[in-house]
Automatic annotation (TrEMBL):
It holds the Pfam family SBP_bac_5. The keyword Zinc does not apply. This is ABC transporter substrate-binding protein. Residues 1-29 form the signal peptide. Keywords: Signal. Residues 81-425 form the Solute-binding protein family domain.
């Protein structure tokens, strides 16, 4: 089976870090940064680097959002793989993939992108400890043959091109790897070159004139790390920053609505019900809990109407789900749900955690809704680190969790497998259902594209039919942009923010 895609264009920290309390901004404010080709884009980022911008860590997503580091493969809006530094790829047998690199790509340090340079970056990732999440459990060898990068897996992996889209598998020049550290400063391939990093305070990037694609519309990026939400909101109100990550919902009312853009996130708040023991071992009792939930009330009260009601486990951050959900086969599976039981005085325990500010309020609202239906609810709310092990052990009849539904591959099958299979490592519902396992296995084996999306939706329907997980809502994040910004990306996957097309127009 062959898959070909073509396009003409398309260390741990070596830095000494100290965490600022609120963040301070670069000397050049957004208001004074000019417009057009000479403009610099000012960013207020939510989190400072945790590992000195080591791409093996989650800091890689900053490198991706700044358009300084690139991967062999990218994702389109449907989470299908598309060319990036690789222009085409071919699966030559069940275990082997060959990637053809783009010609004329130069690293920021002036060296040329070659198959050996790309393979070296991937080998470093496979040998990293800990491994990048996307490679967890993946047996992968990387070699070079006839100018192509050859990736061989230990078992068939139809998702291999998707894996290579992870920012943690960015391709850096050989000069990035020196003495056990990895430095992205001056070693990427993107339209912006990372030229300096000031600990956990700020980072500076300049336009890279040797970029293989269209040159950046802006002269550079000045990124400040501002963990305090009030300070980020103030930066947007005062025009100190052009683009602001994650404006707190509580600050939104004090900001001009035209500057705020709500981005659906691939994160679902779900009520997990213990399907193995206790009252919810009975599917009819689980169905009664499902019927008791009033999502609109939860969203209006706990989220100030800044969330989307969940009709499934996957939400509007994956827009293809809106089209795929609800077909005849999907509806037929859901028709097999149990009828709700009459409950009167059924005692249940309900757990959640305090780390996400809205969840304790969600627990209060759910307690009221469940008790109105006849349940007697006892709450247990703790910090996540003190409650996770009990939740995983099935100590609660019900548990509320805010859960990321797509991981680094942009694909939700790993989430389904971890949360809902008999052998799942994060199976809060203690669910073990042959039909669910079979549906998730089928989705896991399906090739990327239309067939995989159809299999994913069939698996979602099988999970929902058990009523072991009741999706409540899909979260949104608020991105702030001043009036002069054009082309900032509102990316649900949080991989892209500034591109070569982002610019500052006259306000």
């Amino acid at each position: 089976m062959n898959h070909r895609l073509r396009t003409g264009a398309l260390a741990a920290g070596a830095l000494a870090l100290t965490l600022p309390l609120a963040g301070c901004f670069s000397a050049e404010s957004a208001e004074s940064s000019g417009t057009g080709d000479d403009a610099r884009i000012s960013l207020a980022m939510m989190q400072p680097p945790r590992s000195g911008l080591n791409p093996m860590s989650d800091d890689a997503f900053k490198l991706s959002r700044w358009a300084t580091a690139e991967t062999l493969v990218a994702l389109d809006d449907t989470s299908d793989p598309v060319p990036a530094l690789a222009t085409e790829w071919e699966q030559t047998d069940d275990l082997t993939w060959r990637f053809t690199l783009r010609d004329g790509v130069t690293f920021h340090d002036g060296t040329e992108l070659t198959a050996e340079a790309a393979a070296h970056s991937l080998r470093v990732a496979t040998e990293s400890s800990p491994l990048p999440r996307i490679l967890d459990g993946v047996d992968m060898e990387v070699s070079v043959d006839d100018g192509q990068v050859v990736v061989t897996t230990g078992s068939p992996d139809p998702l291999l091109p998707n894996r290579l889209t992870s920012p943690q598998l960015s391709i850096l020049s050989a000069n990035a790897y020196d003495g056990g550290t990895i430095s992205p400063v001056g070693t990427g391939t993107g339209p912006f070159e990372l030229v300096s990093v000031d600990g956990t305070s700020s980072a500076t990037l300049d336009r890279f004139d040797g970029y293989w694609g269209a040159p950046a519309a802006a002269a550079g990026i000045d990124a400040d790390f501002v963990p305090d939400g009030t300070a980020r909101a103030a930066a947007l109100r005062t025009g100190t920053a052009h683009v602001v990550e994650t404006v707190p919902a509580g600050q939104a009312a004090s900001i001009d609505e035209e500057l705020l853009h709500e981005v659906p996130m691939p994160r679902t708040n779900t009520l997990y019900l213990n399907a193995e023991s206790g009252p919810f071992a009975d599917p009819a009792v689980r169905a009664a809990a499902r019927e008791a939930v009033d999502r609109a009330q939860i969203i209006a009260s706990a989220y100030e109407d800044r969330a989307d009601e969940a009709v499934g486990l996957l939400g509007p951050a994956l827009p293809w789900t809106l089209e795929e959900r609800g077909g005849a086969d999907y509806d037929e599976i859901l028709a097999g749900r149990a009828e709700p039981a009459d409950v009167d005085g059924v005692e249940i325990s309900l757990g959640t955690f305090t780390d996400r500010a809205e969840l304790p309020e969600v627990a209060v609202l759910l307690e009221q809704q469940l008790e109105a239906a006849g349940f007697v609810v006892e709450q247990d709310v703790r910090e996540y680190q003190f409650i996770e092990s009990d939740a995983l052990d099935g100590a609660f009849d019900a548990f509320i969790l805010s859960r990321a539904t797509v991981l680094d591959s942009g694909d939700p099958v790993a989430y389904f497998g971890a949360d809902f299979t008999c052998a799942g490592s994060f199976n809060l519902s203690q669910l073990c259902d042959e039909d669910v396992d079979a549906a998730i296995d089928a989705a896991s084996a399906a090739p990327a594209g239309e067939a995989r999306r159809a299999a994913i939706m069939a698996a979602e329907a099988q999970i929902l039919a058990t009523d072991s997980a009741i999706p409540l809502l899909h979260e949104r994040v608020i991105q702030g942009e001043t009036g002069g910004v054009a082309g900032a990306v509102r990316d649900p996957r949080e991989r892209t923010l500034v591109t070569n097309e982002t610019r500052i127009d006259a306000q």
